Amino acid sequence: MTFMSANEPLLRRELLPTIGAASLGFAQPVSARRPNVVLILADNLSYGDLGCYGGPIRTPGIDNLARQGIRFTHAYSATMCSPSRSMLLTGRYAERSRLPSVIWQFQTDRGLPLEEVTLGDMFKAAGYDTACFGKWHLGHGPQFMPTRRGFDEFFGIPYSLDMPPCPLVDGDEIVEKEVSRNALAGLLADRAVQFIGQHRDKPFFLYIPHTAPHPPLEASARFRGKSPAGIYGDVVEEMDWGVGRVLHALKSAGLEENTIVIFTSDNGPFGHLGSTGGLRGASYHTFEGGIRVPMIVRWPRRVRAGSTCRSVMSLMDIAPTLARLCSLQQSDARFDGVDVSSLFAKPDGSVDREPLLFFDHAYNVQCARLGRYKLHIARHDEICLFGPPLPFLRAVRTANRAGNVVNLPLRPPELYDIEIDPGEAYDVADRNPAIVQRIRSRLENVLQTLPEEVRRAYAETLARGTLPFEQGRLPRPEPVPDAPPSQRQ
Predict the structure, then answer these.
(1) pLDDT tens, the chain, 489 aa long
(2) Which end of the chain, C or N, has fewer beta carbons within 10 A?
(3) What is the phi/psi pair of residue 349, to 5°?
(4) Is 374 helix (H, G, I), strand (E, B) or coil?
């Protein structure tokens, strides 16, 4: 079985006439000193899982990567899988790419739009060999698959493991109708190691989007039952073993010094699985627990080893940063991310940027991070941890004909100083009205550059009515005085 015919036209290449290799001006041989890139993405790995982030799981491979590189403590993703992968590979908001939500296995007509330029496209145009081994989840119709989006090789699964039937694909061929989940981590590591060995003489871009630790949780016999953190720990430890194998392969091939290695995750924990490290929320939430992710970058002699950076960073920053470091021609489309390469040598520095916006799965902006502050302006009623009473919700849903989805404005908005309050427990909006206004104004400026769907959703949210008490919060009960000692039980 195949996902596409080998005789089909290469649609992406036809859409990229302006960034072909000939236009890049590379007169030097392809073996010149342009760095290789290995980009490793975990699936629903929580901020607090890894040993190097204070977590309980044994992750010696990733911990060693952190000791040799820079560890970011304020790196952000989207709230869910497909949007995060879109942001990572394009450097643009998923909402700009009109991919605000997860792609399901029955949606063969949905995918990253063909006009979007991926990192695979940019590296391929620059003369790099490219490969993607792991979970794609940016569309599984023929035109959306990795081999049509700038990758020479693909081996992995088209969407999430929990979307049956989930096949194993090699190139364009389905080699297993239902992937062997407990063998997949080892197979991905094997292919990555093989690719490194076969491409040591030419610059390459290797993208490894792991399936772990997204459920269903299954580990191979070598790791099953070995972690003190249960089956979740088994799965994370096996992923870490795979990362270690890739790092060892780079060293054995003599490529360690000239290879940029990036490790991160696509969002926070799946439900109750994993540890956010004390952050509020989980995946699908725009609280810190759902969107703050581990991120580590290693590039010997270019990145300060063992350093930590507290500057705000996004998955969207990876594309513009690699474009600069690897001399890639940028697409005509403007990046939403920024080049953060200056932080590699000066981790105590900062970069100028617009506020980072975070959305739900229906184009609704929820909050924005700017500097040390995070402003919540709306909250999805299904995801809100504290919400208005159900009769009110029923009335709003009926009036707006929005089914079971309503984005509610927060009046007043909530402001959190993330530097001192990463758990988002203490709203300081009333003490900082100027900061609230500044972030909101800049947020609205960014919204004006995004598609009409985003602007319309924002206007509809603001038009919704408010409760007679604080919007989005339960009314506070009156304090109950202590009972006299004689009445205490």
Answers:
(1) 455 443 443 443 444 444 443 333 333 333 457 999 999 999 999 999 999 999 999 999 999 999 999 999 999 999 999 999 999 999 999 999 999 999 999 999 999 999 999 999 999 999 999 999 999 999 999 999 999 999 999 999 999 999 999 999 999 999 999 999 999 999 999 999 999 999 999 999 999 999 999 999 999 999 999 999 999 999 999 999 999 999 999 999 999 999 999 999 999 999 889 999 999 989 888 999 999 999 999 999 899 999 999 999 999 999 999 999 999 987 656 899 999 999 999 999 999 999 999 999 889 999 999 999 999 999 875 544 444 444 555 555 555 554 455 788 998 999 999 999 999 999 999 999 999 999 999 999 999 999 999 999 999 999 987 654 444 444 444 555 554 544 444
(2) C
(3) -80, -165
(4) strand
Q: Which two tokens stand for residue 385?
A: 């941890």
Residues with catalytic function: 81, 137
Whether the CB-CB separation of 359 and 79 falls below 8 Å is answered with yes
Dist CA 341 CA 257 (whole Å): 17
pTM (two decimals): 0.88
Question: What gap in Å lies between CA 159 and CA 65, rounded to an integer?
Answer: 28
Domains of the chain, with CATH numbers? 34-345 (3.40.720.10), 356-463 (3.30.1120)
